[in-house]
Queue: 2 jobs
Job 1
Amino acid sequence: MEDCIFCKIVNRELPGEIVYEDDRVLAFLDIHPKAPIHLLLVPKSHLASIQNEGSEDVAGELVSAAKHIAKEKGLSSYKLVFNVGREAGQTVNHLHLHLLSGGPSELTI
Ligand code: AMP
Ligand code: ZN
């Protein structure tokens, strides 16, 4: 999708510190980390929000990739966050899962 920053990172049109990739999911470092480890996991195929039809399968793939990355990095404790809608803090309209670790447990993003 044009003018979507996360699609551009997926397509290598914008730089991203990519830490994981498979055929459906890309994970990269958040540019403004809110915790010592702050990753964003996105579907390679554009989908705006958890509110969209059929997002459950995509969300499952992101959670599955997050578990895989956490295991690989030896993270036993972490936070997984979907912001849904602008008032909840969603600023990028390409569905994404935040993975945060190493910060205070009361952290909100
Ligand atoms: P949200 O507020 O849930 O929509 O999260 C969007 C996140 O994307 C924020 O935490 C931003 O810091 C992050 N972000 C925005 N632009 C970039 C970028 N070019 N590369 C990496 N992370 C970004
Ligand atoms: Zn997109």
Job 2
Amino acid sequence: MKEKVVRKAILPAGGLGTRFLPATKASPKEMLPIVDKPMIQYAVEEAQACGIEEFIVITGKHKRAIEDHFDAAFKLEESLKKSGKKKLLEEINRLSHLNFAYIRQREALGLGHAISRARPFIKDEPVAVLLSDDIIDPDDTLLKDMIHLYEECKAPVLAIEKVPMSDISRYGVIAGTLEKENVYRIHDLVEKPSPESAPSDMAIIGRYILTPDIFEILENLAPGKGGEIQLTDALAGLLKRRTLYGYLFTGKRYDAGDKVGYLKATVDLALKNPEVSGPLKEYIIAVAERLKH
Ligand code: UTP
């Protein structure tokens, strides 16, 4: 395969978001705000910081708000201009140079199925995949580090994190050999194993650098755990053909697809936001005092 740079990202957003019902009954989970931005915008900004300017968003039913969010909003812009709200105007136009393509996943048949929908947009180049409900601390460089590793080894790179064994059955899990600091050569992948059968405590989290040979495998894959087309199963198939690497993330990640993870992300990211951090901090201290009694 020819050496190529990572220019594109897939943002799967076709899931049903059942853990957030009823909020996600008619609105996308990916549009739930963390402080003042929807979750999916954090993922877009993270990829943009790595030089990625083309996004393929996999959508489904009730996901139109995502398209509107990244589209121009002429009436709003006019109104902000008239009222002299320059900063807000800049803010809503900050991502306007990025390109977005949208593909509907007609049925939520799994993450692997969602990613396979992007094939016509990827052709023969590597691509980043970001699950926007996994929020990575915006000061972290996980995706950049993964892209550097891809450039060095020209192999797919999966972000991995050590998780408590009590949580392991929620994840795809790898077994691997440490090659150098934070880099594992993968020799096994299992989707949602039981704690007893898990090959390690290293879980795959929502950042991937994939190579286009994954698509052929995805398209011929039978449903796996939960009756879904699982990306982990496709990666296990790819592992039979080529080397895969795991990049161990030791920074801060929030599983914002889960209610508690979402609330933690909201608190921590609000504390980093100068507009709200002062009064919020006072409030948190007051709540902590109240909880002591
Ligand atoms: P999740 O496992 O979080 O599933 O998907 P979900 O449907 O979004 O949420 P819950 O578990 O029902 O609450 C991980 C990522 O994969 C995408 C989701 O949109 C999310 O970004 N996904 C999942 C798809 O795009 N299509 C699918 O069929 C399944």
